[in-house]
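Recall the central idea of this unit: under ordinary conditions, the amino acid sequence of a chain determines the structure it adopts. In this exercise we apply that idea directly, starting from the sequence alone.
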Amino acid sequence: MLTTLRGKFLVFILLPVLAALIAITSVSYFSARRYLIDQMKRSGLDALKADAARFKNMIIQVHAVLGSIAIAEEIGGLTDSQRKKIFIKISDALGNHVTSVFMGFPDGRMVRSKKTLLPKGYDPRERPWYREALTLPPEEFYGATYPYLDASTKDPTITFFRRILDKDGQLIGVGGIDVDIARIVDTLSQYTGLPKNGVRFILSDDARILVHPEMSRVGTYLDHSREAMDVRFAELIRDPTLNSYQFIGERADQRWYMGFHRIEDTRGFIALMLPAEEVLRPLNNLIREMSIIATALIFILLIVLLVMTRKITRPVYALTEAARKVVKEDEYQDAIDVPSKDELGQLTESFNVMMEGLRQRDFIRDTFGRYVTKEVVEELIDNPDGLRLGGEKREVTIMFSDIRGFTPLSEHLGPEQVVDLLNRYLGDMADIVEKYGGTVSEFVGDAILAFFGAPVDHGDSPSRAVACAVEMQMAMVTINKDNVESGLSEVAMGIGINTGDVIVGNIGSERRAKYGVVGHAINLTARVESSTIGGQILISEATYDKVKDTVIIKQERKLRLKGVDEEVVLYDVAGVTFPERLMVPALHEVPLPLSTPLDVRVIRMKDKKEAEFVNQGRLTHFSANCAHVALNQEIRPPTEIRIDFCDDRECVNEKIYGRVVEATNAGDGFEHMLRISYASPEAQKHLKQLLY
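Accordingly, the structure predicted from this sequence is:
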């Protein structure tokens, strides 16, 4: 069925519709079910609290009556006959749930509202209510008995009592009121209705059933049924720390809601049991009706789809054939005619736009994919107008890097060695630049020009550029290790970084262009880089202001740079703390004294060419990275120089290239510290023989 377009229309439209209907129905059902259950719990708990509150109000009323009796007794002067009349009136006034109002005296007398005779030998002083009243703390007067079944009526009863004292604090007697709990429950039912098969009942705090619609269960314990739900309910009732609780569980293969709430000032609980099915019955009926309607809708949709797919597939087949021709011819043909303005016409028009887009994307990838970063290619793909010459003004951070002494080094290497060294070096550096979101603008021999902030501006371009430079210097350790293993000399790289406004975009001619930057900020960056020594990173003040919270500075220097009228402040970077802590590898090597100072000739270099002869001097100390040269005149840092070794006849092919990093007045001349960028193999061999 999925081999034809018509079949796919039927399957991929019907299935999602069916899945959506099922999902919507399921979500609606479970949401409504959860809501109804939550509502049932809230309503159940509210009903329990309301019933308990009404029970509490009855207790307050009973206490008030007992208090009135106590006041009357305290005043004194009542006879037993008067007391009996008062008790009868009180019993009638309180309602049918009060079965007796009475008072027991210390001499064994008993006055009560009931007309029935007391059992022979009845002594109120032996009754629980009388004894408990006498054991109350002095500051307490009221109490209630444990719920019990009345001996005469067999109804669940609670006796509320009060200790009654005279003015001198002597016991007059104990007043009491018997309350029929079952009648109270009947009264509560008038206020709070229950769903079909719902049950309201009262238990004692030991889970004994005092009031229940099923008379056979009255007087039994709740867990007597051994139903798991009843057992759990009984355990909760017996927990003295719980005043109320509710849950839903299984009982007799049916889900029930069960809840209880403690009745204050009693040892009883009022409880509810509601069948969950009764609450969910309207929802289940609604789901059945929705299922019938959904089935009818799907059947109608199937018929409509059969008619529509027959009309749609014919022109679609024609469009498919046109696309197949494009694939087979392996080139993009002219746009095909748009047959109509409906959705099919829009599809054909979109097909034409897609072909044009594919043509441009293939051209961009084929033309630029090997020469610019992934970000530039994606920018050009998203915006084909970017292929046009031109650009925009934008603040970027520019980075120049250069291998110190690479020119003389390459003169001592074969072409394959030079290319191998450059490829490893430039490949590793370009990967690091790309890692930090930079764009490599160009490679000029061993030099790299990269910028950060275009075409994608990450918002933290200066920090990315400085962190990138530190990681590049760290990578030089691995590169030099590979050089030594390959029999090549170690190399050192200087990096300059500056931030400023430039023009960024496609620069060149219609036939040949590149994505790059132009502006004064680039020239300044080149001057900053030319002031570095191997292994050093210098950043301009413009860059430092933006990264000073995340960069570790070794020292600050003021220099005059070519093309800049005023002194420029440069910062020597030792490391960064963002995005992670990275440190520039430190050079700890100290030059060693030569056994015999060596006569040398010092030549000032400019743009890697001889500029002028300075003077004769003496080389006094040497190491792989540093050297000391004594001259009778000062050469200011950071001048680039070349040192030629001389014998009695002429200067031989032993040379050292480097940059002056420090000049000290020694009294009879100047001592210069030189950071070596390259020492010829002949020079290294000669100097090692002269070291102590």
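The mean pLDDT is 82.
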